[in-house]
Amino acid sequence: MTKLVKIQIKIAALLILVGGFFIFFIYYQISQNSDNHTLIDNNQNEEIFYNKLDGTKTSKENQDVSPIAIIIENHVDARPQSGLSKARIVYEILTESDITRFLAIYDLSENLEKIGPVRSARPYFIDLASEYRAIYVHSGGSSEALNRLRNDEVVFNLDEFFGYNSGYFWRDDKRYAPHNLYTSSELLSQAKNNYDIVKFSDFTSWKFKDGKSESVQNYDIKINYSEDTSYQVIWKYLKDVNQYERWQNNNRHIDDDGSIIEADNIIIQYVQTKILDEIGRKDIKLIGTGKLIVFRDGITIEGSWQKKDASSRTMFYDEDNNEIELNRGKIWIEVVPTDMEISY
After folding, report:
1. Which of 9, 119, 120, 290 could form a disulfide with 73 if both were Cys (CB 3.0 to 4.6 A apart)?
2. Is 133:213 a contact under the CB 8 Å cutoff?
3. pTM
4. DSSP-assigned beta bridge partners for residue 101
5. 125-139 pLDDT, tens per residue?
6. CA 110 from chain center: how many Å?
7. DSSP string covering 46-96, please?
8. Interval 49-79: pLDDT, tens
């Protein structure tokens, strides 16, 4: 074998060795990329579940809910409230004179030791509770509301004064009646079990999205339910956290445990309102359609609300008649008369 042939054989062997290493390297990279792609695909295909009330992430077991709708009062003697900051959805509406009350919507996963003070029912609150097929929690009510509840088959009526329902409430002796009635997540869960309310509510969920600040500055939303500052509301937009902080009577609105009341969405719903008597009771039309302003991400969206009948969901649409997407998280709906001015 000549010297030249030996050199050629060595070169060929070296090329084979280098080629083999190169092929192994390419295969290894492809294999690694394939594994990473599989992980990414697995992550993308992972099923995510959302709470039907506020659009926040939850487990598969907790995606369907049986909402609890509780009347919570806002009289100055009822402040500070308990559990209001943890409600997923809150409606604020005028009741007597210039005094407002809240309808707070929970699903009991909040696990609250104290909720209230609980007050009496009004017909328009029933219209709202009906949207959720909710357990409607209250203490007595107007004659019109109580007559309606006797024959209502949409909501479940949990009235302190009906049957043995008083066992699901208690009076706090640190306050005087009627501003001292409370309940809790545990007691309401017992009521659900005792009355065999185990089915999930079949209600339409709103559209939700992840929040992202679109505002360049902070600003305030001012709602004057009354000339009395006690019922003047300010929502302050906090750009850094993309949330709205509630102020009332020129003070930050906080719960009894010190929790600040904040929301991810503020909705102004204009409704036809009529005064019924000298006490100032109201006839409020929540069925039909009307003007709407949604505050979300530090921006303003004008549009309209629509509700076909008592048990239908109130839907929110922009000026192009597209359903408005809300941010995942807490929702406060300020129901106001059509002639009330809102500044922002």
Report:
1. 119
2. no
3. 0.85
4. 73, 93
5. 999 999 999 999 999
6. 12
7. S--EE-TTT--EE-GGGSS---EEEEEE--GGGPSPBSGGG-SEEEEEE-S
8. 999 999 999 988 877 889 999 999 999 999 9
